[in-house]
Write a structure and sequence with these properties.
Largest sheet: 8 strands, parallel
Strand order of the largest sheet: 8-7-6-5-4-3-10-9
CATH class of the largest domain: Alpha Beta
Order of helices and strands: EEEHEHEHEHEHHEHEHEHEHEHEEEH
Distance between the termini: 31 Å
Strand content: 15-25%
Radius of gyration: 23 Å
Structural class: alpha/beta
Number of helices: 12
CATH topology of the largest domain: TIM Barrel
Helix content: 40-55%
Number of domains: 2
Number of strands: 15
């Protein structure tokens, strides 16, 4: 049983962070923020996949101005990601960003940081103090060395120093992140940081890699930390469509029985009995399940011989055969369908189950 680390609570828009609130899944757009049409289209896809919080890069004033249009057009809280230029942070806040991510130590000095914090305080906007292994102050590196699993102290001290800068300016609506591209440094760093502060923590492995490497590294680091009860928001960072980050994020939470969204899919790894092109079939089903809210167990199996039996616990499933597939519920076959129509008919069955579930819920 996982026991969450107690923290103070902040709010990013209407999403509570920390203080026992559900762990929030975050992603970041990879579009030019100033291109509001493309950015909004991507945020719509991420929202449909279940993204709780969305972050956009603000590298210039055009992007800061676009925050206003984006904020007015989306239903999830908007976070602005700022580096170096205090003016961009102030402009993003004034244009409606509901949280800003900054490294206070590189925003331009105390007077400029004071202007950023004043804007955040005036608009009740939380600040995420984000520190990476590559952005640690030189004096801390001299004192403690580069962060390693055995000694992540420079990373922790940098974060706490920057938090104090914000606190001294009269603002404590803060969450903290300390990022490393190394899994073991990430784990050690967050474990030690969690002992030193009760601010909510945002988890992530930075520069984690593509779909496979990034998923593995992020899942190992974040899975261990979440099992320890550490972490209030997180992002799975992938060199990939950000929708994939959200998909991986929810599967991670589901695997730890922390939070479930929509159906769970089980599928066989395939073997010599497989008589259907299962990989694209499984991918298409998985993508559709991301749009559903009903909690179902859905099976995608490679053969009709073992499929229904091995996946007997599934609420609904499909299995492929020689030019024909079957659809089964709780291990019992309900339909036989030509292979070329199997996906179409199966998705139709899933839609019916979703509609029935929603109708039943609304009648209660």
């Amino acid at each position: 049983m996982i026991t969450r680390r107690p923290t103070r609570q902040i709010r990013v828009g209407d999403v509570p962070i920390g203080g026992g609130a559900p762990i929030a899944v975050q992603s970041m757009t990879n579009t030019d923020t100033a291109d509001t049409e493309r950015t909004l289209a991507q945020i719509a896809q991420l929202t449909a996949a279940g993204c709780d919080l969305i972050r956009v890069a603000v590298p210039d004033m055009a992007a800061a101005a676009a925050v206003k249009t984006i904020r007015a057009s989306i239903s999830i809280p908007l976070i602005a990601d700022i580096h170096f230029d205090w003016r961009l942070a102030v402009a993003a806040v004034e244009n409606g960003a509901q949280c800003i991510r900054i490294n206070p130590g590189n925003i331009g000095g105390e007077k400029k940081l004071a202007k950023v914090v004043a804007a955040a305080r005036a608009h009740r906007v939380p600040i995420r103090v984000g520190v990476n292994s590559g952005s640690i102050e030189k004096d801390l590196l001299r004192a403690h060395g580069y962060p390693t699993p055995e000694n992540p102290k420079a990373l922790i001290e940098s974060a706490l120093r920057n938090v104090r800068l914000v606190e001294e300016l009269g603002w404590e609506e803060i969450k903290i992140s300390i990022k490393s591209s190394d899994v073991l440094t990430t784990i050690a760093g967050y474990r030690q940081l969690a002992e030193k502060t009760d601010y909510p923590l945002h988890l992530g492995v930075t520069e984690a890699g593509g779909l496979i490497a990034g998923t593995v590294k992020s899942s190992v680091a974040l899975g261990i930390l979440l099992f320890d009860g550490i972490g209030d928001t997180f992002r799975i960072s992938l060199t990939r469509d950000p929708v994939e980050e959200v998909r991986v994020g929810y599967e991670l939470l589901r695997s730890l029985r922390i939070r479930e969204r929509g159906p769970e899919m089980i599928s066989c790894p395939t073997c010599g009995r497989t008589r259907i092109d299962l990989f694209p079939l499984a991918e298409a089903v998985e993508q559709h399940l991301q749009t559903m809210h009903t909690r179902l167990k859905v099976a995608v199996m490679g053969c009709v011989v073992n499929g229904p039996g091995e996946a007997r616990e599934a609420d609904i499933g499909i299995a492929g055969g020689h030019g024909v597939g079957i659809i089964f519920k709780k291990g019992k076959i309900i339909k036989k369908v030509p292979e070329e129509r199997l996906l179409e008919v199966f998705l139709d069955e899933l839609r019916k189950m979703e509609e029935e579930s929603l109708s039943s819920s609304s009648s209660l």
